[in-house]
């Protein structure tokens, strides 16, 4: 979490960095700040709260200069106040630092520095960095960084500027992402590619254990110990449109609408005529008889569906683990196991740590990621690209449906490799996949008035329960997560059969219960769930077939969904009205759907 950026070049650094922070604010938005170098001093502006508060400050007190660093914060150590906002400096103010990550031994370092006379302003872990640098600095910034770097424990990416080196930015990476961008006579740095646009045309990913010195025209890279490393830039393929809201009022609305094209892209990448192409994983899957999915949040919900797909189609034993749990267990590693790490960002700290644990046990790891240059992708033995395009709204929408669709294709692939389905069965499944993008497009246009009416009716409710069975149990979990993360309504998803084991006690005439009830194998059971809620005067929002009059007759409001020929793929359609419902409830409660409180898009700390 947290985003860092830097610029050195012919433009005013302030304006370039504000755009970069705008693109990075999905990583955290508790406070923002920047340090700009003019020829005499380091000028700092920072503010708690949203980026616009920093913008207001800058419009009253602009800072001129062509070199600077900036930060948008997701608070870990210390409250989200202006004092704790980055950049942080040493007492003399001649060294400024922005940092992403956590310095785990900051308390020890702080006590030692304080004993030597350092005075700290903030409660952050970051402030030890400029103070350590100040202690050893004799005019050579790189030498100072090399002298202190081994003292920092934890994961970090930081950028530092030194008052007496006004045309230089110094950066270091150990465990947190950091990219260097190159444009015409200008260099940039950022935690993610969108923040390098539009000025950089090429980028390189700094590796752990590397330092870099940026000047206007070039970058010098070396290891922490000083070994020179040749920079290898790649072309930036992303364009500005893909990271802009366009005509939408939020990234979430844009990303919900993009789902048909994302699913079509996945289809086109995996289907050649009547055949499913092999993903290029570099792993022999024939001996795999046990798959472990590792993921967090929405990606974990997609993994639950991945389990259904693999078990039904490939008849393989599958476990689904929450990354933050797996990493602290001592999982049994047996031959024939494959770990599949699922992560939109490719940077989720818990998923990365569990991937590393699996690798330490010699378990092959494949990842399904949206950001191809991410740490998880780079550390996996094989990578499946998600192809969802940049997802910026904190609430994952298009990445979820992309994950589910991609996992279905992966399950088919494994089924074929294991000889569990024949050509005819494969053709039938591919026929089931083909109409999905169009069905999703039509479903998104369906009964917006009812979704809005339900959102209006239930906006005041302070809790909502979601029920689903079979493939719709993950839909219930995901629908509940969407609602709670962007509208702050307490929401829980339950397996329909579990409801009577406790949660049914919650039902009152003011509790909306969302029942996901397509006409599938679980239909009758879900109807019983609905009746049980009705008998206790609960309010029913049903998600079901457009022509299901029985359902319409017993629900307060019914969100119609289209039917997928292949029942396994139905959750891709059932989730759509729930994404829109969460969006409208959040708007009705005046919540910021793209930047919900306390959250960040990529969770790079534990
Ligand atoms: C989804 O809406 C969430 N904001 C969150 O649960 C997210 O899915 C989770 O943090 C995992 O992220 P990842 O897919 O980037 O690893």
Structural class: alpha/beta
CATH classification class of the largest domain: Alpha Beta
The first-to-last residue Cα distance is: 10 Å
What's the tally of helices?
A: 19
Percent of residues in beta strands?
Answer: 15-25%
Question: What key attributes describe this structure?
Answer:
alpha/beta, binds 2-deoxy-2-amino glucitol-6-phosphate, seven-stranded antiparallel sheet, 23% strand, Rossmann fold, 606 residues, Glutamine Phosphoribosylpyrophosphate, subunit 1, domain 1, eight-stranded antiparallel sheet
Describe this structure in words.
This protein is of the alpha/beta class. It folds into 3 domains: 3-243, Glutamine Phosphoribosylpyrophosphate, subunit 1, domain 1, CATH 3.60.20; 248-434, Glucose-6-phosphate isomerase like protein, domain 1 (Rossmann fold); 442-606, Glucose-6-phosphate isomerase like protein, domain 1 (Rossmann fold), CATH 3.40.50. The protein is built from 19 helices and 27 strands. The strands form 5 sheets. Strands 3-2-4-1-10-9-11-15 form an 8-stranded antiparallel sheet, with helices on one face. A 7-stranded antiparallel sheet has the order 5-6-7-8-12-13-14. A 5-stranded parallel sheet has the order 19-18-20-21-22, sandwiched between helices. Helix 7 (259-270) runs parallel beside helix 12 (398-417), helix 7 (259-270) runs antiparallel to helix 14 (436-444) and helix 15 (448-458) crosses helix 19 (571-588). The protein is globular. The protein binds 2-deoxy-2-amino glucitol-6-phosphate (AGP).
């Amino acid at each position: 979490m947290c985003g860092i950026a830097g610029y050195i070049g012919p433009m005013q650094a302030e304006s370039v960095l504000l755009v970069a922070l705008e693109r990075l604010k999905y990583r955290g938005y508790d406070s923002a700040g920047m340090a700009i170098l003019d020829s005499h001093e380091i000028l700092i502006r920072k503010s708690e709260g949203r980026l616009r508060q920093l913008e207001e400050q800058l419009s009253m007190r602009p800072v001129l200069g062509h070199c600077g660093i900036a930060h948008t914060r997701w608070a870990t150590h210390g409250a989200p106040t202006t004092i704790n906002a980055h950049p942080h400096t040493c007492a003399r103010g001649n060294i400024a630092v922005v940092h992403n990550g956590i310095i785990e031994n900051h308390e020890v370092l702080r006590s030692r520095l304080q004993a030597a006379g350092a005075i700290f302003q903030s409660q952050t872990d970051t402030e030890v960095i400029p103070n350590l640098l100040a202690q050893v600095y004799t005019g050579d910034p790189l030498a100072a960084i090399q002298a202190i770097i081994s003292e920092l424990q934890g994961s970090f990416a930081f950028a530092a500027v030194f008052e007496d080196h006004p045309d230089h930015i110094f950066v270091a990476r150990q465990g947190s992402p950091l990219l260097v961008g190159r444009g015409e006579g200008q260099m940039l740095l950022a935690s993610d590619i969108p923040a390098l646009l539009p000025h950089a045309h090429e980028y390189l990913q700094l590796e752990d254990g590397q330092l870099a010195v940026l000047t206007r025209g070039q970058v010098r890279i070396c290891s922490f110990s000083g070994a020179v490393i040749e920079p290898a830039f790649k072309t930036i393929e992303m364009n500005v449109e893909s990271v802009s809201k366009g005509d939408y009022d939020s990234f979430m609305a844009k990303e919900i609408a993009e789902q048909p094209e994302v699913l079509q892209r996945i289809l086109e990448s995996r289907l050649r005529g009547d055949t499913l192409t092999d993903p290029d994983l570099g792993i022999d899957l024939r001996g795999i008889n046990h798959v472990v999915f590792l993921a967090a949040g929405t990606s974990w919900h997609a993994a639950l569906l991945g389990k259904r797909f693999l078990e039904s189609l490939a008849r393989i034993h599958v476990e689904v683990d929450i990354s933050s749990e797996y990493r602290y267990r001592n999982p049994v590693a047996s031959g024939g196991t494959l770990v599949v790490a699922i992560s939109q960002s490719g940077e989720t700290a818990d998923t990365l740590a569990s991937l590393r644990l699996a690798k330490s046990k010699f378990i092959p790891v494949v990842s399904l990621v949206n950001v191809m240059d991410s740490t998880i992708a780079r550390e996996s033995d094989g990578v499946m690209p998600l192809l969802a395009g940049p997802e910026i709204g904190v609430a994952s929408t298009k990445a979820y449906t992309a994950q589910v669709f991609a996992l279905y294709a992966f399950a088919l692939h494994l089924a074929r490799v294991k000889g569990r389905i024949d050509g005819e069965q494969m053709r039938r499944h591919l026929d089931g996949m083909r109409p999905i993008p169009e069905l999703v497009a039509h479903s998104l246009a369906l009964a917006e008035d009812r979704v809005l009416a339900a959102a209006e009716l239930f906006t005041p409710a302070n809790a909502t329960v979601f029920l689903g069975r079979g493939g719709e149990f993950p839909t219930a979990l995901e629908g509940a997560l969407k609602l709670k993360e962007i509208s702050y309504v307490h929401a829980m998803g339950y397996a329909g059969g579990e409801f009577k084991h406790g949660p049914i006690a919650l039902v009152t005439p003011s509790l909306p219960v969302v029942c996901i009830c397509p006409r599938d194998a679980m239909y009758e059971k879900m109807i019983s769930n609905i009746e049980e809620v009705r008998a206790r005067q609960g309010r029913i929002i049903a998600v079901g077939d457009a022509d299901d009059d029985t359902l319409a007759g017993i629900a307060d409001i019914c969100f119609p969904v289209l039917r997928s020929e292949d029942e396994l793929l139905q959750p891709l359609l059932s989730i759509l009205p729930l994404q829109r419902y969460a969006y409208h409830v959040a708007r009705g409660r005046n919540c910021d759907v793209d930047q919900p409180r306390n959250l960040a898009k990529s969770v790079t700390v534990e």
